[in-house]
């Protein structure tokens, strides 16, 4: 198969021919149709994930058709069009049996624990537990994005923070996952406020129905909080921090109304300090979101099928496999291109 591979962290990835993967007993091999270019893949390439063994093929958001099936797989067959959560659960441990496969201690992650989807073929494990059928009518880019950023944002907003129609939602950071959260908030009937330093990212947020956009470039914390208060005088009920920076995490917490709920999606390179006095005195709650188990995807898929949620509208660039190495390196260097990039492999 052709695949994007790197032999050393931060060394330029390249496309080369690699051995085809074979399915595990309970797994499958999928022929990749489209895969997402995600900042988490860039973090891995930079060496921030100690589970990655070199040489390595990145990629964890994908859609494709099953190419080969292991002998223990019962629910799926060759030719089925599928996607998968980026956290693949074992289906046997206590967490999985309780419905919490996204925190399975035995989890596998394509593009992290083993070779991923920046390739013509990718192996996925415990297929009966993790694979999600994809309608033929669904855009391949939209289907791929359901594996990570949309699933993580949806679980965080709906299953963790319990966002309701009519509530005010603050999204801090309008990259791929932040825009996904904003789009979900709009689809659920929330009044969405978006904060970013990039005018083009804020314009993209406005184009998907965000009610208020705030350009925070050059503003200190107090000034940004004042702008948020103008948009939401009674405070916001739910906030999302999508950048992984201590300053923006503080901002999203301090903007919350009493009893507010923060969803933490941004990943930190070092452990941040929390404004604990505010959290305690206002009884704020902080929720992590680490993807979503396949068994919980029905609500998200129904929202997409209804037309209320259109992940494909966030796609700004569609590139081929040969363009992926440069795009990954650019993302790791801090490229802030608006919208989302997907890699069409097939």
UniProtKB/TrEMBL annotation:
Cofactor(s) of this protein: Zn(2+)
Record keyword Zinc present: yes
GO molecular function, one term: zinc ion binding
Keyword RNA-binding: no
Family of the protein in this entry: Belongs to the zinc-containing alcohol dehydrogenase family.
PANTHER family, per database record: ALCOHOL DEHYDROGENASE-RELATED (PTHR43401:SF5), L-THREONINE 3-DEHYDROGENASE (PTHR43401)
Protein name: Alcohol dehydrogenase
């Amino acid at each position: 198969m052709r695949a994007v591979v790197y032999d050393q962290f931060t060394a330029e990835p390249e496309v080369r021919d690699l051995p085809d993967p074979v399915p595990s007993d309970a797994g499958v091999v999928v022929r990749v149709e489209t895969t997402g270019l995600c900042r988490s893949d860039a973090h891995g390439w930079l060496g921030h994930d100690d589970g990655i063994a070199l040489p390595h093929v990145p990629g964890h958001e994908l859609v494709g058709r099953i190419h080969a099936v292991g002998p223990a797989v019962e629910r799926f067959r060759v030719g089925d069009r599928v996607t998968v959560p980026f956290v693949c659960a074992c289906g046997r441990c206590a967490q999985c049996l309780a419905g919490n496969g996204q925190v399975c201690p035995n989890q596998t992650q394509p593009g992290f624990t083993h070779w991923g989807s920046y390739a013509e073929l990718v192996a996925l494990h415990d297929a009966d537990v993790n694979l999600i059928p994809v309608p033929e009518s669904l855009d391949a880019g939209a289907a791929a994005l359901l594996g990570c950023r949309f699933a993580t944002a949806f679980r965080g907003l709906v299953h963790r923070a319990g966002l309701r129609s009519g509530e005010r939602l603050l999204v801090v950071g309008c990259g791929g996952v932040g825009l996904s959260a904003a789009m979900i908030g709009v689809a659920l009937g929330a009044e969405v406020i978006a904060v970013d330093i990039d005018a083009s990212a804020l314009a993209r947020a406005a184009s998907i129905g965000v009610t208020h956009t705030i350009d925070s470039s050059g503003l200190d914390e107090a000034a940004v909080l004042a702008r948020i208060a103008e948009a939401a005088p009674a405070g916001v009920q739910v906030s999302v921090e999508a950048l992984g920076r201590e300053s923006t995490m503080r901002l999203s917490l301090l903007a919350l109304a009493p009893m507010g709920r923060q969803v933490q999606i941004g990943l930190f390179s070092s452990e941040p300090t929390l404004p604990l006095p505010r959290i305690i005195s206002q009884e704020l709650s902080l929720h992590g979101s680490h993807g979503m188990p396949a068994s919980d995807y029905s609500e998200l898929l129904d929202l997409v099928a209804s037309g209320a949620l259109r992940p494909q509208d966030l796609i700004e660039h569609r590139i081929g496999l040969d363009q992926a190495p440069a795009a990954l390196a650019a993302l790791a260097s801090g490229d802030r291109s608006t919208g989302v990039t997907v890699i069409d492999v097939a």
